[in-house]
Design a protein that fits this description.
The structure holds 2 protein chains of 2 kinds.
Chain A (H helix, E strand, L loop, with lengths): L3 H10 L6 H18 L36 H5 L5 E2 L2 E2 L7
Antiparallel strand pairs in A: 1-2
Chain B lengths: L7 H9 L5 H19 L2 E4 L1 H16 L11 E5 L26 H9 L2 E6 L33 H8 L5 E6 L5 H7 L2 E4 L19 E6 L2 H11 L25 E5 L9 H16 L3 E5 L7 H16 L17 H12 L2 H14 L5 H21 L5 E5 L15 H6 L5 H6 L3 E9 L2 E9 L4 H13 L1
Parallel strand pairs in B: 2-3, 2-4, 7-8, 7-9
Antiparallel strand pairs in B: 1-3, 4-6, 5-6, 5-10, 9-11, 10-11
Helix pairs in contact in B: 2-3, 5-6, 7-15, 9-11, 9-12
Classes of the chains: A mainly alpha, B alpha/beta.
């Protein structure tokens, strides 16, 4: 069973705001799922290479140029931002 | 015969011969949606105006005597995780409730070029995470065969829409079974293509090394028509590749079908087992050779999947931080904006998987979980490569049970995950697999899963079509 402190730490890493009740709920649920995943412990895999991708493709290169066809109007993307100012996305100040 | 029952080829012939107009065909589906969508809730957005204006253009083309492509004027539905320019794309999430797609996915551009009609966007589990469509922030879709049951998920809206004749065909996406399992539960055909066969550009990412877009349709022929349009290498998705397009002539006498012995496990529904075995018997009677094979690491596929997919998801979903688009919560500082936007915007299952993914990737656990799962992925892939030296395709059930009741598994994530036990290994190995309706357990459809070698979709289609004739 993972601890409440661990759940809080993970939530912080994930930038997820959880209530006390949710922390308790996820503690139980994550523990159950992690117990199930423990099944993998039985397998000896020291000599096996990891697979991160189903196809054997590597370093797909392309020319570094603008694709006119793909150009999306700036305003269109800016309209999606929750807060903007003078054509920039506005965020809370980072430096105190 | 009513217009909404037609297959793609039948509808195409009818349009060409001017037996009916594209407008009439489109209106017939819109009427059906109006009648049925309230109870089934397959569609999140219905785009009447767009669909009718598209249909009008096709009619003008036909009136002008022009040749029309096979999909021209054929009304389809799009899972709401695939971007269609200027339409809302919610991913079934509150966090994208008001998000308007600024561009279209490559698959959408390809369908548009053909003149396909878009009826609307279909419901799904939030960010495609789930097996029942109950995780949609906008309410569950119902199974058209039994309204008290789930349509499967995550492409439940797309599968239910096809099954209830609310559209001719639909697009879904499949990360661990999300096309095949709902296709099985709803009694329609669904294909998860080989990884890389279809461009993922414009698909909202869940787990990028597993996600594929694929067709859901009434017949194998229709699924093949849609797949042939959407597949192909795309410069906007560097993981996409050109598939081998050789047509297949099937000689059933030389066909070798492998049945993994690990697949008729304890806990499989007896009706499902009976129907799957009867379907395999039909192939045997037609002359195919049935071989028992072994996938020794199959039991490890689900735990490996529930490490790899949440890990990738936790990285992919980090972008919904309330800054550039989507739901944004107020906070006293930037950190609080991030964590409140995500905490309030994401539903329970999405948060659960972000937590799980963050955990398995976190310092001190990476080797024990994520790296281990990637190694297990190699073993699973090797198992398939080995059996495919001996057989042409594999057959298994799509899911251990038919459609379950709404609410039955929603409070128990682990039991819910188990309904993907036969499908996740295919995504880990990147293989193509199709769900084919082979009968009913009571009134509930059951699907046979046909798994092929990479880029052998045509062989799968040929074998599946054979069943429809047996």
């Amino acid at each position: 069973m993972i601890s409440k402190k661990e759940v809080q730490h993970i939530a912080k890493l994930a930038r997820l705001d959880l209530s006390q009740a949710e922390i308790e709920k996820y503690r139980k649920e994550l523990s159950a799922i992690l117990d199930y995943i423990e099944k993998l412990k039985k397998l000896e895999v020291a000599e096996i290479q990891p697979t991160s991708h189903p196809l054997k493709v590597e370093n797909v290169m392309r020319e570094d140029r603008e694709n006119e066809k793909l150009k999306i109007k700036n305003e269109k993307l800016m309209e999606l931002a929750p807060e903007t100012k003078n054509g920039y996305v506005k965020v809370k100040s980072i430096l105190k | 015969m009513s217009l909404i029952n037609l297959t793609i080829t039948q509808a195409h012939e009818g349009l060409k011969k001017k037996e009916f107009s594209a407008l009439e065909l489109c209106q017939a589906y819109l009427d059906k949606i109006k009648e049925k969508n309230k109870e089934i809730f397959a569609f999140l957005t219905v785009t009447d105006d767009l669909a009718l204006s598209q249909a009008k253009k096709i009619d003008d083309l036909i009136a002008g005597g022009g040749e029309i492509p096979l999909l021209a004027g054929i009304p389809g539905a799009i899972k709401d995780v695939i971007l269609v320019k200027d339409l809302k794309c919610t991913a079934g999430s509150k966090i994208l409730e008001n998000y308007i797609a600024p561009y279209s996915a490559t698959v959408i551009e390809k369908l548009k070029t053909q003149g396909a009609i878009f009826l609307g966007k279909t419901n799904l589990d939030e960010f495609a995470m789930g097996s029942s469509t109950e995780n949609s922030a906008f309410g569950p879709t119902k199974n058209p065969h039994d309204l008290s049951r789930v349509p499967g998920g995550s492409s439940g809206g797309s599968a239910a829409a096809v099954a209830a004749n609310l559209c001719n065909f639909a697009l879904g996406s499949d990360t661990g079974g999300s096309i095949r399992q709902p296709a099985s539960f709803c009694g329609v055909v669904g294909l998860k293509p080989t990884y890389g066969a279809v461009s993922r550009y414009g698909l909202i990412a869940f787990a990028s090394s597993l996600d594929q877009i694929g067709p859901i349709a009434k017949t194998v022929e229709d699924a093949k028509i849609v797949f042939d349009i959407i597949k192909g290498k795309d410069e906007l998705d560097s993981t996409s590749v050109e598939s081998n397009v050789e047509p297949q002539t099937l000689n059933v006498k030389s066909l070798r079908i492998g049945i993994p012995k690990e697949c008729f496990i304890k806990g499989i529904d007896s009706e499902v087992e009976k129907l799957i075995k009867a379907a395999i018997k039909k192939y045997e009677n037609a002359g195919a050779k049935i071989l028992e094979v072994s996938l020794p690491h199959n039991a490890y596929a689900l735990p490996a999947y529930y490490i790899i997919s949440p890990a990738e998801a936790s990285a992919n979903l980090a972008r919904y931080d309330g800054i550039k688009y989507g739901y944004s919560a107020k906070g006293k500082d930037l950190m609080e904006v991030y964590s409140k936007s995500k905490g309030e915007g994401f539903g329970a299952e999405v948060r659960r998987r972000i937590m799980l993914g963050t955990y398995v990737l976190s310092s001190g656990y990476y080797d024990a979980y994520y790296l281990k799962a990637q190694k297990v992925r190699t073993l699973i892939k090797n198992d398939f490569e080995k059996v495919f030296e001996k057989v042409d395709v594999l057959m298994t059930p799509v899911s251990p049970t038919p459609a379950f009741k709404i609410g039955e598994k929603i409070d128990d994530p682990l039991t819910m995950y188990l309904s993907d036990i036969f499908t996740v290994s295919i995504n880990l190995a990147g293989l193509p697999a199709l769900s084919l309706p082979v009968g009913f357990a009571g009134k509930l459809p059951v699907g046979l899963q046909i798994i092929g070698r990479p880029f052998e979709e045509n062989k799968i289609f040929a074998i599946a079509e054979l069943f429809e004739k047996l």
